[in-house]
Amino acid sequence: MSAGNDDNENAGRREEGAERVVTGTSPVEWAVAALGAAILAGVIGYLAHDGLTGSGAPPDLSVRVVSTLPAKAGHHVQVLVLNDGQSPAAAVDVVGELRDGETVVEEASTTVDYLPQNSEKPAGLMFTEDPAAFRLVVRAAGYTAP
Amino acid sequence: MKAVMRASAMDAANRVGELTVQQPKTRTFLVGLGRAFGGALIFALPILMTMEMWQFGFVMEPLRMALLLAVTVPLLVRLSRFEGFRKTAALSDDIADALVAIAVAAVTVVAVLGFLGELEPGMGLRELIGKVAVQIVPASIGAMLAQNQLGGGKDARRQPEPTYGGELFLMVVGALFLSFSVAPTEEVVLIAYRLSATQELMLAGFSIALMHGFVYGFEFGGTERPAPGEGFLSVFARYTVAGYALVFLVSLAILWTFGRTDGVSLEEILSTALVLSFPGAIGAAAARLIL
After folding, report:
1. Which residues of chain A lie closer than 8 angstroms to B81, CB-CB?
2. Of A11, A92, A110, B241, which has the maximum CB count within 10 A?
3. What is the pLDDT of residue B257?
4. Hey, where are the domains in chain B?
5. Where in chain A do CATH 2.60.40.1620 domains reside?
6. d(CA B274, CA B247)
7. How many CB atoms lie within 10 A of CB B262?
């Protein structure tokens, strides 16, 4: 919108007999306004695109072992819980098992409160046995829709 | 400098039937911008620090959130007529003010959520954008309200006689603002579960009585006087009852936007909306007094 446009509208008002002092819009303000318009268009555009083209596919949960550290009481397995789906998940149960062949020697679990779509969250599992001596299996066992 | 501006304002007032367009001063705009940041912070901080709002960022339907943002813009434009950073004459000035409020809100939200550790690498783009988008709404209204609430008393500007539609609009803004900060919390749903139908009707009656009392009874600064010759019933029906109906509709719209109506029985939806209309009614009444 140009300054000339403003003048025209103001002129229209003048004819109505308004009797006030008003402040026009400075170039600096128009620049900030343009920034606001860009942010707004970007956010609405992104959300609308996501809403219209997003598959709404259910959460796709997986767990990855990051590292194993010795802890004061046993062993600390750091994991990364991932959601590669298009929907968020809540109360994600993360289970880790130490297996010796078919026998489960020890089990540890934790819950991730919220796991948004296309996101990851670190979590930890605590074992008393040394995971290095067994086969470590980690998985996400379940979730609820938030 | 202020004195000069006031003198020129008085000159202008003497010129009957003329609209004086002041040259925009960058410094004045920057001061207004600072106030806008203050308003966005004060009004939005409680919601910025509410966990449910962070979660709504990625839980909310993206299309409903886009619609909410789109609706916010005309609301801000209209609000700019009553409030805003300066006296405006042309619609284009109001649009500029509304967009500035959006920019201020976005910067404020990103900064505060960033400080609070709510915008971190590892979060998906959808989560990051959603978290900011949902908070832009209250923050931009706060930015727009800043001028009157934080500005000097002598510069406070309220249109002396808002129209009937204008009064209803102010009530919608007030209801939207207060309900918005309460709606995301679990408590609204919990309260609705616990209240019996009788208690809910009493709550509605209480809301309506408070709404009327706030505006006409309690002798606050902006207390409204009914027009001469206008009876109690007329004022009560035209302003309070009509206003409460709007508050209720705003509550329903907010609940729908937040997905609180999905898979919920109609009875429970209505009772939740009634609970949410309690803060909404207070917000609506306060808006008529303050704005």
Report:
1. none
2. A92
3. 94
4. 24-157, 159-291
5. 61-144
6. 9
7. 10
Q: Which of A20, A21, A143 best probes binding to B when mutated, by most B CB atoms within 10 angstroms?
A: A21
| Sign of torsion over alpha carbons B104, B106, B107, B113 | positive
Q: Where is B21: in which H helix or E strand?
A: strand B20-22
Of residues B23, B28, B58, nearest to A116 (C-beta): B58
Query: How far away is chain B from the Cα of A43, in angstroms, using its nearest Cα?
Result: 7
CB contact under 8 A, B90 and A6: yes
Mutate to test the interface with A, among B4, B14, B19, B95 (most CBs of A within 10 A): B19
DSSP A77-111: EEEEEEE-SSS-EEEEEEEEEEEETTEEEEEEEEE
Range list of β-strands (E), A1-146 = 21-23, 61-71, 74-83, 89-100, 103-115, 119-127, 135-144
Which whole number is the average pLDDT over B267-272?
A: 94
| pLDDT tens digits for range B187-234 | 999 999 999 999 999 999 999 999 999 888 776 666 666 777 778 888
User: Average pLDDT of B99-114?
Assistant: 96
**Least confident segment among A46-50, B17-21, B63-67, B231-235:** B17-21
Chain A residues in contact with B98 by the CB 8 A cut-off are 36
Interface of A with B in 40-69 (CB under 8 A): 40, 43-44, 46-48, 50-52, 54
Interface ipTM: 0.83
B98-120 average pLDDT score = 95
What pLDDT score was predicted for residue A54?
Answer: 74
**Contact call for A119 and B26, based on CB within 8 A:** no
* Mean pLDDT score, A99-125: 93
